[in-house]
Design brief:
By secondary structure, the chain is mainly alpha-helical. Helices cover about 70% and strands about 10% of the residues. It has a two-stranded antiparallel ribbon. The longest helix is centred in the C-terminal third of the chain and has 44 residues, at about 50-95. About 0% of the residues are buried.
Length: about 100
């Protein structure tokens, strides 16, 4: 699964994390579409009206987990790169 986040280098150690501009809108549209699809059995079988939104909330939790793992991935990359810079600075200062 590809991350929606992108690591953009700036000058020096400045790094920004960019994402698609429509990320939040896309998630909310999918949430309400899923809730609408899950609402059909509620109308047919007369179940409780909270069930579709509870089911669609699982999707929101899944997106949150994807977002968290993407940020963790970016943090690991940043730490590796920063560690390499520190080691090279230490070597040059010791010489």
């Amino acid at each position: 699964m590809r991350s929606r986040l992108q690591w953009t280098h700036g000058r020096g150690e400045h790094v920004t994390v960019d994402r698609k501009q429509t990320y939040a809108a896309e998630i909310f549209v999918k949430f309400f579409a899923l809730a609408g699809l899950l609402y059909m059995p509620v109308l047919v079988f007369g179940w409780g009206e909270w069930i579709p939104f509870a089911g669609a909330s699982v999707y929101l939790l899944w997106e949150l987990a994807r977002f968290n793992s993407a940020l963790g991935e970016l943090a690991d990359l940043w730490n590796k790169q920063h560690e390499q810079r520190q080691e090279s600075a230490r070597r040059s200062s010791l010489q």
